[in-house]
Amino acid sequence: MNNSPFNHTHFIGYVNQVTPQFVKVHFPSSVLMKPFSFYGEQLRGGLVGNYVVVEGDQFGFLGKILELSLPEKERFQLSEKSFNTKEFHPTGKIEILLSFELFNPMKIDKGLNSLPMIGAKVFICSSNFIKNYFKGFGLKGVNKSVAPTIEFGCLTYDKTTIVELSQQALFGRHCAIVGTTGGGKSYTVSKLIEGVTYNNSKTIVIDSTGEYINFDDEDFSEKSAKLSIDSFFHYTNLAISDLFVLLRPSGQVQAPKLMEAIKSLKILRVLKNNIDDDFIEKVDENTFSIKISEQVRENITIRDNTILKAGQLMRPYNRVYNKFINEIESIKSDFDIKSLSLQIVKECVYDVDFNNKDKWGGRNDNHLNNCVSLILRINNLINNSKFDSLFGFNKEKNENGELINIINDFINNDKSLLRINFEFVGFDFQSREILSNAIGKYLLEEARVSRFKKNPLILFIDEAHQFLNKKVKDEYFEATELNSVDSIAKECRKYGLFLCIATQMPRDIPNGTLSQIGTFISHRLINHYDKEAIVNACSSANRETLSFLPVLGAGEAILMGIDFPMPVMLKVNMPTIKPNSETPLFTIKTLKKN
Predict the structure, then answer these.
(1) How many other CB atoms are found less than 10 A from the CB of residue 34?
(2) How many Å apart are CA 454 and CA 448, to the nearest integer?
(3) Is 50 exceeded by the pLDDT of residue 535?
(4) Where are the alpha helices (DSSP H) in 219-302?
(5) Once rounded to an integer, what is the mean pLDDT over residues 279-308?
(6) 3-state secondary structure of 431
(7) Where is the Helicase HerA central domain (predicted)?
(8) Do 15 and 1 form a contact (C-beta atoms < 8 A)?
(9) Are 212 and 580 in contact (CB under 8 A)?
(10) CA-to-CA distance for 236 and 12, rounded, in angstroms?
(11) CA distances (Å), origin 462, targets 62, 193, 435, 468
């Protein structure tokens, strides 16, 4: 490529006005604006949307033509034939996008520390010059030769200019794909999944509706996990906070009793798993003996696979808790949930016995009455076949189809794509939101221990408005936030876990999440609040470019972000592997006559 973008054969005009927002250009002749061919490249002259370069004293400038007009006195001479037979002197408005060093054009400056001068020459920008800019966005010099790229599309106004983007620029600061129905959002997601998997990058897709099923047949794809059909998320892998969201205990009595019941069942598991002569000894099926001192042992009594509390000594219980506190206080729900409702009944006792302060008191009927609705919710949840197939209440943790095991196997093998299918997951009890939040929380924990630093992982979340910014309310209208994805957006870039969300309604995405998104691919947006959400979240976006959002065609998008010094309007290439997202067609049906 010729290092200089300023070719006299590409000259079209002179700068005649400079403002901080744009410059105006004077075209000496309308002939200069007409399309022409140069060494096999078709150059379209001065048209709205075209890229141009402006030659300065020390810097060059890349700009985009926003407006064209004729002087007032020449407008009346314009006719169908006159533009081709007479010379006119149009003027145009150019938005300056970035500046570059005059003798090293590929070294760009993201900020506009200088502007062109009056009289600076304006040239048509060749496709070779600008497409090399796209390829280098987001990369440092030493990485440009080895960084994976994705041939994403072409310029909207110049189909010959290929837009090839580095994967680092797209996902290195998280990515959001937004747009109304029919704008091409699903095809863009497919194109990106196709690109990163062809580059052998680890990718997990949370597929809300099953529309990316066509990826299952590819060699790079792991067998998809169809939740509630052939896979499940075992409840013991839920965090305690997720379990609280699922069960929605009130904060007055139910939440403390639920917490104590979970604690007791975790202690029971410790008792069963740590039987030895030194500290814990199993006396019989209903009794465990705890060593208090060399001479003293005290018992913990078991009834119906629960720990008895009423009238029992607290000291042996507390001794076990203190010795195994890390295991018992872990965030995992590692206990027998089938005994949970009965254990809550056992927890409904007075704090102390009035005759012996070392013991729990008798049954507290007021607390028990307050916990009835919670006990009913637990029993209904455990005995519901849909939730059993989703959370494995009656399955072992290591059975085939357990989702955490599937994720771990995928991370360790040589496959590039794992699709987690939510198509068959119901909307009852906010199970979709809780499940996606639990998956995000697991990946967040793995990222924090640097599991993805050497082999980064991209997490795609389709229809993200269904999962993010969700608050679950209990029967007393107290809300609990599901925010693991928000935490991924805020802290996981440095750990090698990258987020890519796709949504029709960016206004429903939390501001904290949107503010951490570095790359936006915005298809057609009509709603005012959706457009404002993008304007507020994307610092590099400007009002002039975003004014095109309501009129973008299918597959057209505006690409903008921190690693992109300028917004780019492009047409996304059709993916080889298409999503299953076509709208069903109405047909005329004739009634059969008797």
Answers:
(1) 15
(2) 13
(3) yes
(4) 240-247, 254-273
(5) 91
(6) helix
(7) 150-326
(8) no
(9) yes
(10) 69
(11) 35, 12, 14, 11
Four-point Cα dihedral 445, 449, 455, 460, nearest 10: 20
Tokens of 454: 């050497």
Question: What are 252's two structure tokens?
Answer: 């007055």
pLDDT at residue 443 is higher than 70: yes
Alpha-carbon 470 to chain mean position: 14
Is residue 183's pLDDT more than 60? yes
Q: What tokens appear for 369 in the block?
A: 């009455």
Which tokens go with 515? 């503010």
Residues 360 and 300 sit within 8 Å (Cβ to Cβ): no
* DSSP-assigned beta bridge partners for residue 519: 175, 561
Q: Annotate 68-107 with DSSP letters as a single string.
A: EE--HHHHTT--TTHHHHS----EEEEEEEEEEETTEEEE
User: Please, what are the domains in the chain?
Assistant: 8-125 (no CATH), 166-231+401-572 (3.40.50.300), 241-385 (no CATH)
Alpha-carbon distance of 397 to 486, in angstroms, equals: 28
Q: Is the pLDDT of residue 475 over 50?
A: no
CA–CA gap between residue 234 and residue 170 (Å, rounded): 34
Q: Are 187 and 212 in contact (CB under 8 A)?
A: no
Structure tokens at 284: 């019989």
What's the pLDDT at 471?
A: 57
Beta strands in 475-533, from DSSP E residues, in sequence order: 479-482, 497-503, 519-522
Q: Which helix (H) or strand (E) holds 298?
A: strand 297-303
24 or 83: which carries more pLDDT confidence?
Answer: 24
Residue given tokens 């199993």 in the structure block: 282
Most confident by average pLDDT, 193-202, 273-282, 390-399: 193-202
**For the whole model, what pTM was predicted?**
0.85
User: Which pLDDT does position 1 carry in this prediction?
Assistant: 42
Handedness of CA 189, 195, 197, 198 (dihedral sign): positive
Closest CA to 560 of 586, 588, 538, 536: 538
Indicate the SS3 state at residue 435.
helix
Determine the average pLDDT of the residues in 518-526. 93
**C-alpha distances in Å from residue 108, one per residue of 96, 102, 563:** 13, 10, 12
Distance between CA 166 and CA 196 in Å, rounded? 10
Measure the CA–CA gap between 565 and 95, rounded to whole angstroms. Answer: 13
In this structure, the chain runs to a length of 594
Q: What is the DSSP string of 392-439?
A: -TTS-TTSTTBHHHHHHHHHHSS--EEEEE-TT---GGGHHHHHHHHH
Angle at 228 between CA 232 and CA 438, to 5 degrees: 50
C-alpha span between 542 and 63 (Å, rounded): 14
How many whole angstroms separate alpha carbon 544 and alpha carbon 49?
12
Task: Provide Rg for the chain, Cα atoms.
Answer: 32
Beta strands 175-178 and 497-503 are parallel
Backbone conformation region of residue 226, classed left if phi is above 0, alpha if psi is from -120 to 50, else beta: beta
Lowest mean pLDDT among 4-8, 263-267, 380-384, 391-395: 4-8
Residue 129: band (very low, low, confident or very high) from pLDDT cuts 50, 70, 90: confident
